[in-house]
Amino acid sequence: MTLHRIGGLAALICGVTYLVGFALLVTILAPLGFGSGSVDPRAVVDFNDARPGILTAWNSTIYVVNALALAVLVVALSRLQASATPARAAVTHGLGLIWAALGLGAGMMANVALEQAALAYAADPGAAADLWATLHVVELGLGGGNEIAGGVWIAGVSAAAWAGRTLPQAVAVLGLLTGLGGLATIVPALGETAGAVFGLGAIAWFLAVGVVLLAVRDRAASPLPSA
Questions:
Q1: Which residues cross the membrane (predicted)?
Q2: Are 43 and 32 within 8 A, CB to CB?
Q3: 106 vs 96: CA distance, rounded Å
Q4: How many domains does the chain divide into?
Q5: What pLDDT is recorded for position 222?
Q6: Domain ranges, residue 27
Q7: Distance, C-alpha 196 to centroid of its chain
Q8: Does residue 224 belong to any structural domain of this protein?
């Protein structure tokens, strides 16, 4: 299997992890308030004690699996764009790996927070909630609470794709808009709305990129026709 096809599968995995994450967010996990800016730590540790494994699986999907697939996608896109825009490909390669590392770190921190809270829960649920809330802040700082790294990478890859015609122009435009949404999460007043724009846009962008890469032959690192 060629690198581009492996990258295409990785892009589809990234999109699917976001879809699964959103599905759980608005169903089973909805009462906990994730994504609303008003998470109740006590509700989280109570839920984790009553239904162990669900939050760990969710974190592992949206962070760990996504980050590992993202690292593969970053390499594949860098390879695709290297001949048309070598300097931009090198920069976005580095930026993409930074995002993947932050996502992996956030996922591991999120799961450690749950593990430590679970150990403390039997003796003192209140202390467990406080411990989880403290570690959750670290998770958010690594990448769960903003989309700056992701926004920069998707926008950068899409700008390079527009300049070098290495992805269909419609996909490049979608990526630029998605990236801007990610960057807007730095503004507190826009955080929730911008985060939703980034998340939904990223799903569509990852899936579109996956389809494009699966159709690219290994030697085809040349510009693609616009769409």
A1: 9-34, 54-77, 89-110, 171-190, 196-216
A2: yes
A3: 15
A4: 1
A5: 44
A6: 4-214
A7: 12
A8: no
